[in-house]
Design a protein that fits this description.
By secondary structure, the chain is mainly beta. The protein contains 2 helices and 10 strands, in the order αββββββαββββ.
Length: 170
């Protein structure tokens, strides 16, 4: 009886992949230069509204570091850049271990000077690499923007602003 149990267990382990002695596969290497476009999208709910800028050429560079993280830099043609360190898991999801929301809000706030006030807003980064396409977003919740864009009477609204850069490996 005991011999049958051991043989059955051995067959089960082999069927479940227990016979693999090479260990787990190494994580993918996402390094490269991804080219594409970037947009800025603003939305408000009261009253409802949405605005998206025309796409602007963008380059996203990812370089693998010795610790398994990546140097990331984005460069938007005509101005605007971001640089830092990201971790990318095996599924391609980015995390931003050194992200400083106060500095990011200050930088983004200067881009929208005269249109949006980011005091008290919250900024969140997110990103991913999937099918050789890298996407990086900065999402600003709680900005107060003038939807009249300085054309006469102010139209101040609570606004969510999403800055998105997306590129593909050649």
């Amino acid at each position: 009886m005991r011999t049958r149990w051991i043989a059955g267990f051995a067959l089960t382990v082999m069927a479940c992949g227990g016979g693999n002695t090479t260990g787990p596969s190494p994580p993918p290497n996402f390094s490269g230069t991804y080219t594409g476009s970037g947009t800025v999208n603003a939305t408000s709910t009261k009253p409802p509204g949405s605005f998206t800028t025309p796409p602007t050429p963008v380059t996203i560079d990812l370089a693998l570091l010795a610790d398994g993280n990546y140097d990331i830099s984005t460069l938007v043609k005509g101005g605007g850049s971001f640089a830092g360190v990201v971790a990318i898991n095996a599924a391609g999801v980015m995390s931003f271990p050194n992200f400083n929301p106060a500095i990011a809000l200050q930088s983004v706030g200067s881009l929208f000077a005269g249109l949006c006030n980011t005091t008290g807003a919250v900024i969140t980064p997110q990103g991913s690499v999937h099918d050789q396409t890298a996407t990086v977003q900065l999402i600003i919740n709680g900005a107060v923007c003038d939807w009249g864009a300085g054309k006469g009477t102010q139209d101040l609204r609570a606004t969510t602003v999403t800055i998105q850069d997306q590129g593909t490996l050649p």
